[in-house]
Every structure is written in C-alpha cells, then in structure tokens.
Amino acid sequence: MLQRVRRLSALAGCAALLALPLLATAQDAQPSTPWPQGGPPSDVALSELVADALDLFALERFEEFRDAKERGEDSGHIRVFQDDIDAGQYTVDDLFAFGDSVFGHEFRDLDGYGDDPAVRPMQRVHAGARGGRDNFSCLGCHSLGGPDGAGAATQNAYLFGDGADLDSALERNPPMLLGLGMVQELARELSADLQRQRDEALAAAQDQGRDVTAHLVTRDIDFGRITARADGSLDLSAVEGVDDDLVVKPFGWKGVFPDLRRATEDAARVHFGIQSSVIAEQHRDAPAPELLGPGPDWWDPDGDGKQRELEEGSLTAASVYLATLEVPTILPPASPALRNRWAQGDALFDAIGCNDCHVRAIGMANTVWLEYPDTTGAAPFEVELFHAGEEPKGSPNVQLFSDLKRHDMGPGLAERHADTSHPNIGASTWLTRPLWGLAETAPYLHDGRAATVPEAILAHGGEAQESRDAFEALSPEEQASLHVFLLSLTRTPKVRSPL
Ligand code: HEC
Ligand code: HEC
User: Fold this and answer.
1) CB 357 within 8 A of CB 402
2) CA-to-CA distance for 333 and 344, rounded, in angstroms?
C-alpha cells in the first residue's frame, strides 16, 4: 500500500487527473500488516491489496508510455535539486517517490550513461576502480525476492578487474537492500560510542601521564582494545573488526561504505558511468581519471558532454528512499510439526556459536534520521525512521543477525586479490553479513557461490571454523532444523504489481 502511495505521488504533478483520485483512497486507508504469523489476510484485505497492485500496474504502464511518447520525460523524475530540498519544498513522501524513481530508472545516454556516446557496449568486467557498464538500473541487479531485493548469480558484478577477463575481477553478488536505514543508524551509534571511548582514553592518558588501555565494547559487541599514550598517540594494533578511525562501515560485503549516500554514488559511478555532481566537484582541483574518466573538464569528468549526471538532491532522495524501505521480518512456519523443528533450530543457532558474529539484535537509541547535504551547508533533512516510507518497520531492537564487524573467514573465502580501493582489508576478510531476509536472498556468500544455506555455513572458515565444525557435527535432523529456522528470516509477503 505504501508502495502505491509512493508511486502515485511520483506521478502527481504530471498526471494529476489520473493520480489524484487514487491518491485520496490510498492515503485514507490504514497501513495493514497482511499475513500475520504466516496466515493469509482476510478476503477484504486481500481484495484491497489486489486492487492496489492493479492500480500500480496501470500507473507504471502509463509512466512507461509517457516516457516513450516524450523522450526523456522519465529522466525529469530523477533530477532533484538540493537547493529545493533545503528550501523545504519537499515532504519525506516526495523524496521517497523521487528516490524510487532513481532506483527504477534505466540510465541512458541522455543521462550521461558511460562516457563516449559512440562507444556504449556493456562491459561486465570492471576496469579497475573506474568500474564498468554492467547494467542500466539499480533495480536491474537488486530485484530478487521482490523490489529492492538481492541478485541472482547472473546479476553478479565483477569489480576491480582488467576490463575484459572475468578471472581478473572480484566477483560479488548483489545483497538485498531492505532495512538499510536501521543498519546505517546502528553503525552510526556504534561508531559514536567507540570514538567516545577512544577520546576518554586519550584524555585519561594525558591527565595521568601514562598509557591507558580501553576495552572497546559497545552494545555487548567487542571491538578489541585501544591504548592511548600520554603523548596523545594511539596504539591501534589490538582493535578488531573496524578501521582505525573507529567508523563502522556497514555497507558492501567488506564493509567499506559508511552511508547510503556514498553507496549510491559509488553504485551509479561503477555500474552506469554516472558521476554525481558532488564527486565531480570534489575532484575539481585534483582530477582522478582512474575513478571518473578521461574528460578534460572537471564538470564533465568522463567527457561525454553531460554535466551533473546525478544531482546532489538525487543522492539525498535515494538515501531517504533506501533508508525507509520495509524491514525484513521473522515468519515462523505455521504447521505445528515444523514449528517444533523451527524452535530446535532457533536454540541451535546460539548453541553452536552462530550468534557470536550473527548477533541476533542490536538496540537502536535514536529513531530520527538526519540526511545531511554534501555541499550546501544547509540543515539536514529529518526523517522519522519508524513513520516514513514502507511498512513493516520491525522494532528499535533491530533483528539484524550481525555484529557489523569484519572477520577473517579463512583461505576458502579469500578473493583473488585485495579490493584495490581498500588494500588494508585482507582478501579473506568480510563484514558479518546480516542474515535478516535470508530466505529471499539466495545464492549466498559474497560471490554467490552457495546455492543453499547449509552450503554457505559449510564454506565458513577462519574465525568461524569452530562454529562451522560444530554445525557439521550436528545430526542431519538438527542441521535441517537450523536450516528451517534460518528460512524463517524473510520479508513480509505482499501483493505486487507485475511490473
Ligand atoms: C550490476 C549489478 C548492480 C547494480 C546495477 C547496482 N548494484 Fe548495488 N550492489 C551490487 C553488488 C554486487 C553489491 C555488493 C558490492 C560490494 O560488496 O562491494 C551491491 C551493494 C549495494 C549496496 C550495499 C548494501 C549492503 O547491505 O551492503 C547498496 C546500498 C546498493 N548496492 C545500492 C545500489 C543502488 C542505489 C544502485 C543504483 C544506483 C545499485 N546498487 C546498482 C550490484 C549492483
Ligand atoms: C566469525 C564470525 C562468524 C560466525 C561464527 C558465523 N558466521 Fe556466518 N558469516 C560470517 C561472515 C563474515 C559472512 C560473509 C562471508 C562471505 O560472504 O564470504 C557470513 C555469511 C553467512 C551466511 C551467508 C549470508 C548471505 O546472505 O549470503 C550464512 C547463511 C551464515 N553466515 C550463517 C551462519 C551460521 C548458521 C553460523 C553458525 C553455524 C555462522 N554463520 C557463523 C561470519 C560468521
């Protein structure tokens, strides 16, 4: 239903006649939670959901026809100016709708797709940090199990390669994008707490004129130890699972992006050859052809004659959209027999140490999202995370199944070379992948090598070796119970438009 509201508001303005009467009914309706406890919705609720999906289908077709009739119409929906956001012109629903359009938009030469308009072949294997041109839309890779979902093996990206040979590249499977607002906020809170502990240790060391060691623990997650010296320097050698800056970066399989703004900017750059106005501006005095392209002018770094390929405001809209998507849920099986197996699997998950890394839940203190602009210096756009965007939202005790730390997973999960942009992160080091939504995100692991959950578990090594061996030592029945439990981590069923 919220999906419908959001798409409709995207159309408001230009298709007023069609959109307005529908908008009224959509907004009057209460948010519903269909399929409580795995059961189906009532007949009335179901017909409403079907009617919503059909309306959305009609509107999406209308949008596509209109874009066909007026070339470039669609591109207008993805251009949002930060100044207009700063001036208070948009509500959170407006930004959600714009972000939704950015996410579904098929980028094309009109938008600045790739660089030289005469050379537009797809390039599945990325050329170094510059990227490739491996798809046309975000949705084109993040679509499995529903919109904003994960990717199949055929949607894998081949990062940091030589531009030609699959074997030269780092193969990565697209993760699901639900619940990311909660993830970013948790990471921000953990980082702030770790940095506070560091600063207190520094102050104490200076006061007392001696080394002070702090045990970095936040929300029961252990990030190792830090030693502050009296001269104001730090010994970071015993810090674990996070960079030396103590900023928890929760996005990407290796945990390299701190927030959704930068993840979106990077995705547009490496998958479509679309440079944000922000990144172009950042390199105004220090051109970076290896990242942005060979163009002679800073305002058009890839030299394709298109400037400001992705507006700063569009980054804001995309972040607000991604931050307020639905949150994955846990739907235990309905049948009593399976329910017993589910409960057994639930207990085994802790008993064999899976929750040492896949921490079931982390409490979130703050629920107001602040989306800061990059360059305008204006106040951040505020979003009430639990009241904006899509349902369901889960609870502030976020059931993420991750400690948001990096771990060495052993040689079996090592990549063929280090990530060129982050050579400090070992080839076998990965962020604990959140397990929420797992039922809808096969194939598993960073390169999608595991077709099923048990295969993914058996591929664990390194710091997870003991836990993996404990899984292998379980009886086949117990292994199956754990599998049943993990498949209850899913997303809420919805009646969706076929488009
Ligand atoms: C060619 C397929 C592809 C396209 C197109 C694509 N992505 Fe991704 N996306 C991926 C892969 C693969 C990863 C994992 C990258 C990594 O680990 O470095 C990813 C990761 C992400 C993440 C981090 C999620 C997490 O939990 O770690 C976000 C956010 C994201 N993509 C958003 C987008 C947006 C927004 C777009 C469009 C601008 C987009 N993606 C386009 C494949 C794709
Ligand atoms: C030492 C930390 C650690 C322990 C212990 C651990 N895991 Fe993992 N797990 C990870 C990391 C890191 C990844 C991502 C590895 C990769 O993609 O190469 C991962 C990935 C997974 C995946 C794939 C997720 C996806 O979306 O592709 C599953 C399933 C999984 N773990 C389940 C388990 C289970 C079940 C246990 C207990 C038997 C367990 N893990 C124990 C760290 C751990």
Assistant:
1) yes
2) 13
Q: What angle do CA 94, 98, 102 make, to 5 degrees?
A: 165
The tokens of 271 are what? 């998958």
Please give the Cα distance from 37 to 456 (Å, whole number). Answer: 27
Tokens linked to 146: 């529903």
For residue 399, the tally of other CB atoms under 10 A from its CB is 20
What is the residue with the minimal CA distance to atom 9 of ligand 2? 432
CB under 8 Å to 68, separation ≥6 — which residues? none
Where does ligand 1 bind, in terms of residues with CB under 6 Å? 103, 134-135, 138, 140-142, 151, 155, 157, 172-175, 177, 180, 251-253, 260, 263-264, 267-268, 271, 318, 322
The residue type found at 482 is L
Ligand 1 center from residue 126 Cα (angstroms) = 14
Give the separation between CA 138 and CA 228, rounded to whole angstroms.
44
Burial of 329 per CB tally in 10 Å (0-12, 13-18, 19+):
buried
Q: How distant, in Å, are the alpha carbons of 110, 176, 283, 483, 485 from that of 346?
A: 51, 23, 50, 10, 6
Nearest to 48 by CA among 64, 32, 24: 32
CA distance linking residue 371 with residue 373, whole number of Å: 7
Asked whether 398 and 186 are in contact (CB, 8 A), the reply is: yes
Note if the bond before 498 is cis, omega within 30 degrees.
no
Nearest to 381 by CA among 263, 257, 261: 261
Q: For residue 221, which ligand has an atom nearest its CA?
A: 2
Residue type, 221: I
> Within 13 Å, how many C-alpha atoms sit on residue 418's CB side?
8
Best CA proximity match to 11, nearest among 117, 116, 114, 104: 104
392 preceded by a cis bond (ω within 30 of 0) = yes
Q: Which two tokens stand for residue 129?
A: 């940090």
User: In Å, how far from its chain's centre is CA 192?
Assistant: 21
Burial of 477 (0-12, 13-18, 19+ CB in 10 A): exposed
Q: Are 107 and 272 in contact (CB under 8 A)?
A: yes
For residue 120, the one-letter residue type is: R
Burial 242-264 (b: 16+ CB within 10 A, else e): bbeebbbbbbbbbbbbbbbbbbb
Phi-psi domain of 5 (left: phi exceeds 0; alpha: psi -120 through 50; beta: other)? alpha
For the chain (length 499 residues), average pLDDT per consecutive 10? 39 33 32 49 87 88 89 86 98 97 94 79 90 95 94 97 95 98 98 98 98 98 98 98 98 98 98 97 94 92 94 98 97 94 98 98 97 98 96 95 98 92 94 98 98 98 98 98 98 79
CB-based contact 425:419 (threshold 8 Å): yes
Are residues 133 and 126 in contact, defined by beta-carbon separation less than 8 angstroms?
no
